[in-house]
Design goal:
There is one protein chain. With 122 residues, this protein is mainly alpha-helical. It has a domain of 69 residues. 84% of the residues lie in helices and 3% in strands. It contains three helices and two strands. It has a two-stranded antiparallel sheet. A hairpin with a 2-residue loop joins strand 1 and strand 2. The protein is rod-shaped and about 105 Å long.
Amino acid sequence: MNSRRDYRGTRTALFDGIEEGGIRASPYTSHEIDEHENDQAIDGLQDRVSILKRLTGDIHEEVESHNRVLDRMGNDMDSSRGILSGTMDRFKMVFETKSSRRMATLVASFVALFLLIYYLTK
């Protein structure tokens, strides 16, 4: 029963412009309707393209800012590596002297520093 209504609806849509004795003229030609639909589609595409352009611009700016942060971090790591290598050289000198008094002082100072930091952070 529903298919019969669909058939009638389709038939009515097909023959909507036909009257008894002739064809009723539609206000728009098929070409004008197609042009209008194309213009709407073009406008929609232009909007999407402009949105995508802004989005890619935002992504580019974000990537550039992340690259700057990573470069600064790399430079900071390089400077930290230089400081740590100097400290390690000093430790090597202390451990190479085999002085038990220096070793005891070094270990005691590390323990005291660790305990001080531990109590300050609590």
